[in-house]
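Case study: PhnB-like domain-containing protein.
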Amino acid sequence: MAKYTTYIFSEDARAQAEFYTQALGGEIQSIMTHGQLPDSREEWKDKVMHLSLVAAGVTFFMSDSVFQPVQHGNAINLCLEYATDAEAYEAFDKLAEGGQVKDALKPAFWGSLFGLLEDKYGVTWMITTEAKPVQS
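Here is what the predicted structure looks like once written out:
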């Protein structure tokens, strides 16, 4: 059995992690920089090698991307499902600050709220709520 953890490569892992902990509630658990490694490159000494944070009750790992530039893409979306509408709206609104709403958070035909946004760091988030039985 495996344990899944999202690993995000960033242009500025510290700033991005702070944004997520403020938007979703949580905290940065640990940060290790390249400067803590023996024989580290001088230009990388302040770069984040590994960062662990908890946001919205979920553990994420992050790192500054030093080997290649970050390229924003659409292959992976991070999806957070909330128990209440209020929690979903709060997370959606905070993550959307400085980003781009692609599909506003609204009731979906399958019985939950659903919204899609790209945050200011180029990460695509799907925010939803637990599905409620649809009345017929």
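For the exam, be able to explain this: The mean pLDDT is 92.
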